[in-house]
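Box 4.2: Ligand-aware structure prediction
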Amino acid sequence: MSNEVFSLCFMCTVRCPIRVETGENRVRWIEGNPHVPGIEGALCAKGSAGTALLEDTERLRYPVIRTGPRGSGQWKRASWDEALDFVAGRLKEIIAKHGARSVIFGERTNLNTHISKAFMKALGSPNHFTHDALCKGSVNTAFRTLTGLNDTQFGVDYANTRHIVLYGRNIFESLEIKPINNLLSAMEKGAKLTYIDPRATITASKADRYWMIRPGTDIALNYALMHVIIKEKLYDESFVQRWVLGLPELQAFVEPCTPGWAEAETGIPAGEIVTLAREMSAKKPSVVFHYGYRGTHHEDEIYFRRSIIILNALMGSIEAKGGLFFKKGMAAAGRKDLRKYTELEFPKITEPRFDGSGLAKFPIADSANGNPQALAEAILNEDPYPVKAFIVNRFEPLQSIPDTRATLKAFEKLDLIVTIDINFSEIAWQSDVVLPESVYLERGDSIQAASGLKPQLYIRKPAVSPIYDTKPGWLILKELASKLGTGKSLPYESIEDIWKFQLEGTGVAVEDFDKTGFVQLSEKPIWWDRKDGLKLKTPSGRIEFVSSLLEKSGFPSFPPYVPVPRPEGNRFKLLIGRSAPHTHVSTQNNMYLSELVPENVLWINTARAEKLGILDGARVEIVSPVGSGQLKAKVTDFIHPEAVFMLHGFGKTVPVQTRANARGVSDAALLENISDKVGGSPVYDSTMVSVRPAA
Ligand SMILES: Nc1nc2c(c(=O)[nH]1)N[C@H]1C(S)=C(S)[C@@H](COP(=O)(O)OP(=O)(O)OC[C@H]3O[C@@H](n4cnc5c(=O)[nH]c(N)nc54)[C@H](O)[C@@H]3O)O[C@H]1N2
Ligand SMILES: Nc1nc2c(c(=O)[nH]1)N[C@H]1C(S)=C(S)[C@@H](COP(=O)(O)OP(=O)(O)OC[C@H]3O[C@@H](n4cnc5c(=O)[nH]c(N)nc54)[C@H](O)[C@@H]3O)O[C@H]1N2
Ligand code: SF4
Ligand SMILES: [Mo]
């Protein structure tokens, strides 16, 4: 007998809708939810490997408390009561001595983030942070400087685009199923893809045009595109007139940025830059310059992301079919929003954040998310105050924050580290208590409001009951809160209570998800009127090329172009990225996925490798200002001579993760921890490394 459960994948945070077949508390089959347009049964390799995660004996199976020195691997198994009593006891001591602000909580944004935030509010600490700045902090801030809204409030209409430009947005490997399916169907109808990356990726192989740009110079390319677009009046005049503030200032700024100037910076022929500008204009407004997530991260990243969004505004492709759109939420579909536990009453918190977000360190970065890359410095310098306890949920500070050595050193000052994870992660191994969460196939989570052109609601339902002694995260936090005396702030006993609370007043019931796993809130795409209906949130109500948010904080809207430093002598810029079979740092120990990509290798340009005496497949040593490591070389023409590239997420050190331990090198151990102080992102693509054959 098999049962069918509609749920949400969580092998990565894209959360594709899935259909799971189960029997005798085992998962027999997982596929994409066939009812969801754009998914229609599709699942990626990682999604299919969910069964291996569920059955894995190397995942966390019960709570443990440390018995030897941190990182020694000496643990005792504990009951949940014992483990949570221990954590609550230590937290109470720390709060009594250093105040609630000395407790910080870091997590990858997830469906239950409103619960974690409520947990911290009840405790009286301002220090909940998410991974957001590490992923796309400067994209977020760039959007806010131009539109008053953040990046999560915009989407890309892949299905109807006629030309899309991707700057290192390696969409066919760093994937999201729905966008890929929609883009492929647009390409079948004739849409063009221009891909720009110092490295020829799978996405490059699918593109109509590929430019191997000199690393870190995309911003020069964009200034030249603007120069041509303004000079040849290729922009959407009526859109720009109605919605844009600051075109004359932009025009003056890009006046000297000729295609010839950009050719010298980027290596892209001037004539081709002009051609792209004209091609995009010919298809406007159904075109997209994709703002990306990662791609090129430098200290001026905010201005690069702004330049991309500005190009879209010039094309009039904002709130246009085949361009970018404002995501519509439940309100746009005439419904009340889902309720959140953060809406309940809490004591007022007046303390500043620990990470400088919203303060002098990061004045305009989004303080709703915080700046995790400031963690080590804040702990080490006790600036602005001592941090003593760190609760880590679904997050890996030792591999996701640049400069692991500095992070580890800072953690020596912490009195308590508690990790909630599903794997024995690097940070779990360095913790005092490890609390195992049930994996996504074993648990329900808060309902997801998926805003978009057609807003929808999705639900994660348990497919099977927990195999080991694990609990869902929302229950772990509730039980911990109860032991701390703040249990009232999370007034639920079961996932059904959470769902009912969220749905209050929306007119949607939990049963509405039964048939297809989701609830469609609007049958038709909701577009705002491009003439008068764009709900921009800037002070001027326009798209501010000259930005009041930047300028009131003393930052220019158009700072002079400063070329990023180029590697000299035998050095390279270290670039990083993802592969299709792995999620960040999460899946390297998965039984199936570790076979597909077992380790990372170092991409190095053929001519440069030859000069250094490096052969394809040979071991090389890579040395950065903060770390070093050894891995195999992949000698290839498919990478720019000034760069080397490696996959993120390898080089693990936890012995009980036998399939991942000591495979490859961790990029976080090599990267310097530098930030774009205006935008809020760490600078992942500016570390210079040297490479030589391994001794
Ligand atoms: N399989 C898989 N898919 C994922 C994820 C995953 O972990 N695994 N994670 C998801 C998440 S959270 C994110 S943020 C996205 C990330 O998706 P992407 O933004 O596509 O990120 P990366 O894979 O890091 O790819 C970055 C690319 O930028 C290139 N690059 C480096 N320097 C430059 C430069 O100067 N200019 C240009 N133009 N390109 C440059 C690199 O060579 C690399 O190919 O992927 C999402 N999808
Ligand atoms: N050096 C370096 N740093 C980076 C990046 C990079 O390319 N290089 N990329 C950046 C980007 S784009 C992003 S989005 C972030 C991602 O940063 P993270 O969120 O830290 O990375 P993930 O691999 O998504 O997940 C981290 C942890 O979540 C655990 N986990 C997975 N599923 C569950 C679950 O269901 N419950 C619980 N409790 N835990 C779970 C995993 O076992 C893993 O230990 O990293 C950023 N930092
Ligand atoms: S992209 Fe793959 S791993 Fe991520 S949620 Fe979708 S199916 Fe799961
Ligand atoms: Mo990300």
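In the box above, the bound molecule is MGD. Residues 64-134+335-446+468-507 form a domain with the Rossmann fold fold (CATH 3.40.50.740).
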